[in-house]
Amino acid sequence: MQQATENLRAAVEAKNAKREAAQPLERRAYTIDEAVLISGVGRTSIYEVIKKGELRAVKRGRRTLILADDLEQFLNQLKPMEAVR
């Protein structure tokens, strides 16, 4: 039993080492909560701009996803603030 536990632990450690060595995948889609954290735009505002068609969202089952390119495009089209004098 102890040998099996040690073998399992070694296998898990080897798998974790491979994961750490591999390059992380670039995220291609975000959940609403992730988009809120990344963009700094509020959750309600995100849903409002989706409803208005200003930000595209897709559904995967019950989950609403925002593609990374769509979020970046939305943020880039926001108008800059004018300087306060």
Describe the structure.
- The protein has 85 residues and is of the alpha+beta class.
- The chain has a single domain, classed as Multidrug-efflux Transporter Regulator, Chain: A, Domain 2, CATH 1.10.1660.
- 56% of the residues lie in helices and 13% in strands.
- The chain has helices spanning 2-21, 32-39, 43-52, 68-77; strands at 29-31, 58-60, 63-67.
- Strands 1-3-2 form a 3-stranded antiparallel β-sheet.
- It is elongated, with a radius of gyration of 21 Å.
- The chain starts with a helix and ends in an 8-residue tail after the last helix.
- The model has no long low-confidence stretch (mean pLDDT 87).
Indicate the topology.
Blueprint: H1 2-21, E1 29-31, H2 32-39, H3 43-52, E2 58-60, E3 63-67, H4 68-77
Antiparallel strand pairs: 1-3, 2-3
Descriptive terms for the model:
85 residues
**Shape call:** elongated
Placed side by side, the strands forming the largest sheet appear as 1-3-2
Outline the low-pLDDT stretches.
none
The rounded Rg comes to: 21 Å
Q: Tell me how many strands there are.
A: 3
> Looking at CATH, which topology would you report?
Multidrug-efflux Transporter Regulator, Chain: A, Domain 2
Number of domains: 1
CATH C-level class is: Mainly Alpha
Distance between the termini: 75 Å
The structure class reads: alpha+beta
Residue share in helix? 55-70%
CATH architecture: Orthogonal Bundle
| Main sheet summary | 3 strands, antiparallel
Give a quick precis of the structure.
The protein has 85 residues and is an alpha+beta fold.
